[in-house]
Write a structure and sequence with these properties.
Layout: H1 4-33, E1 42-49, H2 56-61, H3 70-73, H4 75-78, H5 90-106, E2 113-120, E3 124-132, E4 138-145, H6 153-156, H7 170-186, E5 193-201, E6 206-214, E7 221-227, H8 234-239, H9 251-263, E8 267-274, E9 285-293, E10 297-306, E11 310-322, E12 327-338, H10 347-350, E13 368-378, E14 385-398, E15 402-417, E16 421-436, H11 438-445, H12 450-456, E17 460-472, E18 483-493, E19 505-518, E20 522-534, E21 537-540, E22 543-546, E23 573-578, E24 595-598, E25 603-614, E26 622-634, E27 647-656, E28 663-669, E29 677-682, E30 688-695, E31 703-709
Parallel strand pairs: 1-3, 4-6, 7-9, 23-29
Antiparallel strand pairs: 2-3, 5-6, 8-9, 10-11, 11-12, 12-13, 13-14, 14-15, 15-16, 16-17, 17-18, 18-19, 19-20, 20-25, 21-22, 23-24, 25-26, 26-27, 27-28, 28-31, 29-30
Helix pairs in contact: 1-5
């Protein structure tokens, strides 16, 4: 049986081929249309009925008649004379019937009939194409000859676009021949050809297909010629190639070489192919590499706004081909929390556009910054590898959780393996400190006095070795509709990595997503994400505890996991109230007097299910979503651990297609009160005293709204 990914490619191929055919038919319409006719009736409706094998979009693309824009057709707004109006050309409309019949016959439906229903008014026209597809001609057999001497024949002929017992689609027949040619080229036959033939029995509605392959000679790679370089050394270009002289020829290697050249960030154009001067035969095949060098100096700047960052800005400089050996130097400087974090706090800004984080003294109390100096080397030891070395100084934070300042360096190696399976290894050594709310240390480690808390906030070395791997089997990296995506992350910090005491841990995360088409344009997306972090016990004055630094703990809630909660709101929490604001009865506490902080945990599990489907209007760019998110964060293996529960929050969303990915608005329903946690009162001298261990503040509202770019998963 074909795999999910093979089925996804086959379905995508069918849609692409039919779109190409539709474009060809439309181009023919343009060629016969002649001069633009004078405006006539406005096309207010264009619809199709009875079509099952071909989608509305394919049919609409194959005809010359087009519908006016939504603003010109929707009854409520069309009176305002908005939108682009498209007019009926009577001659092209009559030809459209023939175009649809031709499209169906090429798709295997020889008995298809197309009729029209037209309603006219003095100014408008409403058109419906009624299609009777009829039974298709089915493929009864596919004979592939000429591959008897070719190795791995069974793999070459597996999962072809045209299949037995499916409609005889002429475009899929050509795609099948092209697929065989590509697979033969991938296995060392650069001169391979495939000729197709068929015999159709209209009475029996059967088609017998024959494919004759002429593989030619299996050859090796000959000399490689590089042209177009000026400053980049040709030796580096050859290092970036996936093939070498003397190796078996492979079309896949040529494509991988071209991708490697582009991703090196050194070239604006790259082409790797067989030299046109080569004559097919048993001799080695010469390869010609043509490149066009890109810009070697680049200055960039940006600015913007984020819900959790307030105002942010940054600048950068890139120097390519450093010292003439292909190295790439990157300098970058970024700032966030502008307008709310000290020393850039402006009361007017903090109380307005930064109001969601204005009261966050730990995560947003100071300006965040990041300064990095990095050097990348493509083709490091192998064309698949990219080596990096970076110096950094930064202050980063997580909303209402922690703030970390750090200075250090990192070394990394990223390897692009076959089948879209990138792997990266990094070593990072930093010297810094992490600050969290005092209640965080008090609740987790019984460190409730300023003196005890100081132990956790001292500057220390942190060395981390991490491994990341991603297995991408989706049909689209931005908006997938079929396939799966799995990622793994493991990080370790200990004495062997150069870390100080209180910085030892091992952390692992697995994230898996699945995508399935539902109907013609719907998508069912599922995701499961889990993680665990282990830390050895460390002795303190308060006793022995497993200390996990706040920045390595797990948190949940926000636009990309459980959307019924604000960012970091799901999981173990603590509450703090000043001594003077604590009433005699806890039920009388004013929620405005409470300070809320997520303490995180060592165990995470989140599951998501989302159904995405086109909106009834603007369905080409606007989509809707129904989702159910569930998850929780726990502190396992610890006595008197803060309580946490598994929560489920449904919701709905809107997605607008943009060049950067779908811009989305999600609304999650949350019927729960805030998480149960410890309540502390803070004395004037900064000491924290436990009031109760099972306090829960009422939730301000039941609906949580998130704005973001890109799918949640």
């Amino acid at each position: 049986m074909p795999s999910i990914n093979d089925a996804g490619r086959s379905a995508a191929l069918r849609r692409a081929l039919r779109a190409c055919l539709a474009a060809g038919l439309l181009a023919g319409a343009a060629g016969t249309a002649g001069a633009q006719p004078a405006p006539g009736l406005v096309v207010r409706q264009l619809s199709f009925e009875g079509n099952r094998a071909l989608e509305d979009e394919v049919l609409a693309a194959s005809i010359a008649t087009t519908k006016s824009s939504w603003f010109a057709t929707f009854p409520v707004v069309r009176a305002a004379k908005l939108g682009e109006k498209r007019y009926l050309d009577e001659q092209q409309f009559r030809r459209d019937v023939l175009r649809l019949v031709l499209l169906y016959r090429r798709s295997g439906f020889l008995e298809a009939e197309v009729d029209t229903v037209v309603r006219r008014t003095p100014e408008d026209v409403y058109i419906t194409f009624r299609i009777t597809e009829g039974p298709p001609v089915l493929v009864t057999s596919i004979a592939i000859n000429g591959l008897e001497a070719v190795a791995e024949r069974s793999r070459i002929v597996r999962d072809l676009p045209l299949r037995v017992a499916e409609p005889f689609d002429r475009l899929l027949l050509q795609a099948t021949a092209d697929t065989l040619v590509r697979r033969l080229r991938d296995r060392g036959y650069p001169a391979a050809q495939v000729f197709s033939g068929f015999d159709v029995d209209r009475t029996a509605r059967a088609a017998a297909v024959t494919l004759e392959a002429a593989p030619g000679d299996s050859v090796v790679v000959g000399p490689i010629t590089v042209t177009g370089t000026q400053r980049v050394d040709t030796t580096l270009v050859r290092d970036l190639l996936a093939t070498r002289p003397g190796r078996p020829f492979s079309g896949k290697d040529l494509l991988a070489s071209q991708v490697s050249l582009y991703t090196s960030d050194l070239f604006r154009f790259a082409s790797v192919d067989v030299d046109s001067a080569w004559t097919p035969g048993p001799t080695p095949v010469p390869i010609r590499v043509q490149v066009g060098e890109g810009r070697f100096h680049e200055v960039r700047a940006f600015g913007g706004y984020g819900t959790d960052d307030c105002l942010r800005t940054g600048a950068g400089y890139t120097e390519r081909n450093l010292l003439g050996e292909g190295r790439i130097l990157d300098l970058s400087l970024r700032f966030s929390k502008l307008g709310v974090g000290s020393p850039t706090r402006v009361e007017g800004i903090a109380n307005t556009i930064c109001s969601p984080i204005e009261d966050d003294s730990i995560g947003s109390g100071k300006l965040n910054f990041s300064a990095t100096l990095g050097v990348r080397r493509p083709a490091f030891l192998s064309y698949r590898n990219v080596g990096t070395a970076t110096l950094f100084a930064e202050r980063r934070s997580e909303v209402r959780v922690y703030r970390r300042e750090e200075l250090g360096f990192s070394l990394g190696l990223a390897r692009q393996a076959w089948n879209r399976f990138p792997i990266s290894v990094q070593y990072r050594l930093g010297y810094g400190r992490t600050e969290a709310l005092p209640a965080n240390y008090c609740a987790n480690f019984n460190a409730c006095t300023p003196e005890d808390i100081t132990q956790f906030q001292q500057r220390r070395l942190l060395g981390v070795v991490s491994l990341n791997a991603t297995l991408n089997r989706t049909n689209n990296p931005i908006d997938p509709s079929r396939g799966r995506l799995t990622s793994f992350e493991v990080a370790h910090s200990g004495a062997i990595t150069g870390s100080s005491d209180l910085q030892y841990f091992t952390r692992g995360v697995v994230d898996a997503s699945w995508y399935r088409p539902i109907g013609r344009q719907g998508v069912l997306a599922l995701r499961a994400r889990g993680g665990y972090v282990y830390a050895p016990k460390v002795a303190f004055d308060s006793g022995a505890v497993s200390y996990v630094p706040p920045e390595q703990r797990f948190y949940a809630g926000g636009p990309n996991d459980v959307r019924g909660y604000e960012r970091n709101e799901l999981g173990p929490v603590v509450y703090v109230i000043e001594d003077a604001d604590l009433p005699a009865d806890l039920d009388d506490i004013d929620p405005e007097d409470l300070r809320f902080s997520a303490t995180g945990g060592n165990t995470l599990f989140v599951a998501n299910a989302e159904l995405r489907f086109p909106a009834p209007v603007f369905h080409g760019r606007l989509r809707l979503a129904l989702f159910v998110d569930a998850g929780g964060v726990w502190q396992l293996g610890t006595e008197d651990a803060p309580p946490s529960e598994f929560r489920v929050t449904p919701g709905f969303g809107i997605r607008l297609a943009t060049p950067l990915g779908p811009a989305r608005l999600d609304v999650g329903y949350n019927p729960y009160d805030r998480q149960v946690g410890a309540l502390y009162r803070e004395t004037p001298d900064g000491e924290l005293i436990l009031v109760t261990s099972d306090f829960s503040a009422p939730k301000r509202r039941e609906y949580t709204i998130h704005f973001a770019v890109g799918h949640a998963f």
